[in-house]
Structures are given as C-alpha cells and as structure tokens.
C-alpha cells in the first residue's frame, strides 16, 4: 500500500526518497474539531453584513487569512475591494462569534497519531494560519508536551497565509529539515495547496463536508477520511516511506494507477 502515491510524489518532486524526520500538522480540522464552529461563525457574521458565504463555501476558504476570505466574497458581490475598516469589523465579529461556541474537542485519532509520531522519534511541527490564542493555548492541554514552542508556526509568524507555501517552508526551517524529510497533514484544499507548493508529501484528512476530489484537485498525495484512519495506517505508511529511501528510479513511472482512498 501507498507505493503508487509515494512514487507519484517522487516523480513530481524529482527526489530519490523521503527520509522522514518531521511531521507538519495543520490545527483546525486536523488537531481540533473546530471547523463546524468556524464555518457557522463565518456564515452568520457575513450574512449579518449582507455578504453571502455558505457554511460549505467557508470550508473551501479554510486556511486563508480572514481578510482574504472577506475580500473574495465582497468582490464577488460588489466587484470592488472590501474597505479595510469593514474587513476589520467583520473579522472582529467573526472572532467573537467563534468564541461563543463551546470549546472544540480534540479531533478523534489525533492523539494516537501524535503518540506514534513522538515515539518514532519524529519532530511534530504545528503550522496554522490561526491566531486564535485560546485554541493555541488549548493545544498544550489537549496534547501535553507534544508541540514545542520553537516548532510552531502561527498567524503571528508569517506574512503570506496559505495557499502560499511560506507557512510550511517556515515550519520546515524551524524543524531544520528539507521538504523531502517531512510530511504535511492538512484538511483544507488551500492548506493542501500550500503543502504541495512547499514541495512536501501532503496527506489530506477529509474531516469536513467537502468532496474528496476537491482535496485531490488541490494536489493531495494521499487522502484519508479521518485522523483515526490515518492513525490506523501510520505504521504501514512509515514502512512504505522508509522502503523507498535511496531507491530512486526503481519505481514504475506514474500514470495509469487508480488512487486508493484509504
Ligand atoms: Ca485546517
């Protein structure tokens, strides 16, 4: 299992193998089951301002900066850039709306996957566009001792949000590893694009309502329907990744294979 997906990645990236040293985790929708609250907050607040953003579309924009999401919807309706003060007002309201929801639960399966990553001696790195301090603080409560502050990239660190590769490139730099020495775990199409653009083998976990094809279209190398499914498959995936180390051209060329949705 996974040989085809790994071979496709090596072909597209021109690498000989993946020498896994770090795992780069997105936060919302990967480590916390927080996306339903984000999507509902976006929908409610935008509607209040006469801007139409369905819950499902909110998932398509997940990972963008708040300003970028507001601008896309505003431009679609009015054909012009959203005024900066309106952006600030709407984003402030959205953040407050989100905080009225219950604290999001840790994503089922994430604890098992993180335990495996740590016991494998790999470095877990957080790469989120979020600046929700409450959620960042909860990270150390939900997953004690897993994420070291020096291995965290948040909204406060980057200039360009996802889908720009900058957040993931910064995550690699903080961990001191190359793109071929890591994997990305992402749930959003825009986050997948960022991981792929950073040159990293990108694993999508489809924890929301989107069609899996949307994540493949964004460039996901591998897709799991949940974090639990990824946790279940982790040791096998690790074996498959280490099996290709240095094997370079031994793999058949890509193309003609079906995608296996694990
Ligand atoms: Ca996410």
Q: How would you sum up this structure, described in words?
A:
The chain has 262 residues and is α/β, with parallel strands linked by helices. It has two domains: 3-33 and 106-243, Rossmann fold (3-Layer(aba) Sandwich); 35-99, Orthogonal Bundle (DNA polymerase, domain 1). Helices cover 47% and strands 9% of the residues. It has a six-stranded parallel sheet with strand order 3-2-1-4-5-6. The longest helix has 17 residues, at 227-243. The protein is globular, with a radius of gyration of 18 Å. It starts with a helix and ends in a 19-residue tail after the last helix. The site of calcium ion has 9 residues, from loops.
Characteristic terms for this protein:
binds calcium ion, Rossmann fold, disordered C terminus, 11 helices, alpha/beta
């Amino acid at each position: 299992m996974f040989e085809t997906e790994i071979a496709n990645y090596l072909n597209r990236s021109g690498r000989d193998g993946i020498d896994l040293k770090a795992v780069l985790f997105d936060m919302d929708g990967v480590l916390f089951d927080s996306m339903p609250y984000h999507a509902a907050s976006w929908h409610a607040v935008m509607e209040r301002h006469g801007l139409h953003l369905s819950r499902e579309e909110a998932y398509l924009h997940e990972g963008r900066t708040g300003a970028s999401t507001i601008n896309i919807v505003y431009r679609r309706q009015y054909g012009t850039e959203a005024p900066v003060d309106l952006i600030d007002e709407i984003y402030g309201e959205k953040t407050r709306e989100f905080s009225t929801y219950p604290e999001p639960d840790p994503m089922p399966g994430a604890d098992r996957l993180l335990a495996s990553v740590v016991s494998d001696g790999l470095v877990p790195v957080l790469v989120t566009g979020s600046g929700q301090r409450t959620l960042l603080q909860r990270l150390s409560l939900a997953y004690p001792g897993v994420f070291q502050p020096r291995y965290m990239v948040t909204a406060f660190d980057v200039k360009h949000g996802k889908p720009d590769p900058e957040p993931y490139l910064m995550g690699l730099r903080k961990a001191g590893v190359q793109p071929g020495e890591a994997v990305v775990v992402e749930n959003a199409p825009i986050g997948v694009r960022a991981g792929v653009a950073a040159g990293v083998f990108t694993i999508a976990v489809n924890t929301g309502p989107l069609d899996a094809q949307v994540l493949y279209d964004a460039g996901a190398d591998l897709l799991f329907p949940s974090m639990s499914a990824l946790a279940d498959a982790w040791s096998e995936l690790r074996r498959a990744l280490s099996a290709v180390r240095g094997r370079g051209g031994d793999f058949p060329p890509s193309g003609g294979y079906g995608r296996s949705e694990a």
